[in-house]
Automatic annotation (TrEMBL):
Residues 232-255 are annotated as: Disordered. PANTHER family: TRANSPOSASE, PUTATIVE-RELATED, TRANSPOSON TY4-P GAG-POL POLYPROTEIN. Residues 246-255 have a biased composition (Polar residues). GO terms for molecular function: DNA-directed DNA polymerase activity; endonuclease activity; hydrolase activity; metal ion binding; nucleic acid binding; RNA-directed DNA polymerase activity. This is Integrase catalytic domain-containing protein. Keywords: DNA integration, DNA recombination, DNA-directed DNA polymerase, Endonuclease, Hydrolase, Magnesium, Metal-binding, Nuclease, Nucleotidyltransferase, RNA-directed DNA polymerase, Transferase. It comes from the Eukaryota. GO terms for biological process: DNA integration; DNA recombination.
Length: 255
């Protein structure tokens, strides 16, 4: 079944050491607390480390008693961003502005509807995590996972594709808009809707061009499944350099 999103806010979390970022789609700011708690558990489980300092903006979702009590119980030092200190504020704002710029460029180049700007932001986050950071001189992915990524699974945003959808007798005409968890699934958009499909079975027409895709879409095709090469996760994907003793996370909400 397709997933239909109604998203107004994106929670942006960045690890200060690696510049590795996480984005979460939210309907309201009230969801911030639960998303952050889930992220915190994920980090402790996969990285075997604890977050000890958190820098946020001064929005109420980060300064309310419930959120502050949770941080205190977890032993996390909370620092609110001083808007008068440009250097401190830039850590939070720069990444959000860069994500927005990348997403706008991808949508403009591909002609994809702005209805799914949230998916474009998520895809932009994936791209940034696998692009050399000017401050560290390394890929955020490499510093976070302590290994180099295999980027053979990457595709151009908005690429047309034939996608096999379970329970249907033919492939669907969809457009690539992002990556699923652990890169084992791709995300596809159905034109004219806000429906997002997840699938590992797709024939990307990245090199064939849109014109050929439109021609092929007029032909009836049944039970044709072409598996695209996917990213092969390393067994020790959750490991990180043990020499990193401190993790500082920076979060913000982008409306």
């Amino acid at each position: 079944e397709p997933v239909e999103y109604y998203v107004n806010i994106i929670l942006n979390i960045m690890d200060h050491f690696s510049r590795y970022g996480f984005c979460y789609l939210m309907k309201t700011k009230q969801e911030t607390y639960q998303y952050f708690v889930n992220w915190l558990k994920f980090i402790e489980r996969t990285q075997k480390q604890k977050v000890i300092r958190l820098i946020t903006n001064n929005d109420t979702e980060f300064t309310n008693n419930k959120f502050e009590s949770m941080l205190l119980k977890a032993g996390i030092e909370h620092e609110n961003c001083d808007l008068n200190k440009l250097q401190q504020n830039s850590y939070i704002k720069y990444r959000g502005q860069t994500l927005e710029a990348i997403a706008k460029n991808m949508m403009s180049d591909s002609g994809i509807s702005e209805q799914i700007w949230d998916e474009a932001i998520m895809c932009a986050n994936h791209v940034m995590n696998n692009t050399i950071n000017l401050t560290t001189g390394e890929l955020p992915f490499t510093r976070w996972h302590n290994r180099k990524p295999n980027l053979s699974y990457l595709h151009t945003f908005g690429t047309p594709a034939w996608v096999n959808i379970p329970m249907e007798l033919r492939q669907n005409k969809l457009y690539f808009v992002g990556y699923g968890a652990n890169h084992r699934l791709f995300k596809f958009w159905e034109q004219g809707t806000t429906n997002i499909y997840w699938s590992a079975n797709a024939e990307f027409l990245e090199h064939d061009g849109l014109q050929k895709f439109e021609q092929e879409s007029n032909k009836k095709q049944y039970n044709v499944i072409v598996k695209s090469p996917l990213y092969n996760d390393h067994k020790n994907d959750s490991n990180i350099d043990e020499s990193v003793q401190e993790k500082t996370s920076i979060t913000e909400n982008d409306s």
